[in-house]
Amino acid sequence: MKIIRGSLITFSGLDGAGKSTQIALLTDYLVKSGRTPVYIWSRGGYTAGLQGLKTLSRCFFSGRLPPAGKSPQRSYALSQGWVRRLWLSLALLDLLWVYGIQIRWHRYRGRLVLCDRYFWDTAIDFRLNFPQEKLDDYWLWRLLGRISPQPDVSFLMLLTVEESVRRSEMKGEPFPDPPEVLRQRLAYYQDLIPRVPFHVLDGSQPISTLFNQILTHLAQVQHHQRPV
Q: CA angle, corner 15, sides to 9 and 16, nearest 5?
């Protein structure tokens, strides 16, 4: 299977659905085929660059900022409108760099990009975590929507809420979503299916079955494009 130079392949879906596993398998497959992809993991407010800034800020403002992860201090801070809006603005600026510049640069250089979570996952995160904010009113959010590259292939991996909870417990996730949040997240994804050109995968299937489905779909897509 030949992959178009500069392709962008994204993986979205619930935690525990197997995104990281399938990306690792696809990466290994591509490397053995002579192509080394660029891997990018993105989550609004938690990318490597912004995490580094948070760590530096906690060192500089020792004891005056909430600790990393979920905590009563963090919840209280984000209950204040100006803090919430500042956090969102910083997260959006960071994603403008990741989606609008970093990914575009890799594609311009002909690199294949595999993205673990993308624009749609970010939209769901922000709407779940900040229901008080009208996200569509943020000009940075509208700019992010315009500047984010359209993926060549988008996979959406889903599974039941119960199975997601079970897998998170098995992996020892430090801050897993509670079942009620997972249900909301799943409903958001299902609402997106008619509007986003996802290739939907059942994450409860065996790993090898899912990987073969991914390769088959990629081959079908590439057949209609010009490989280089």
A: 100
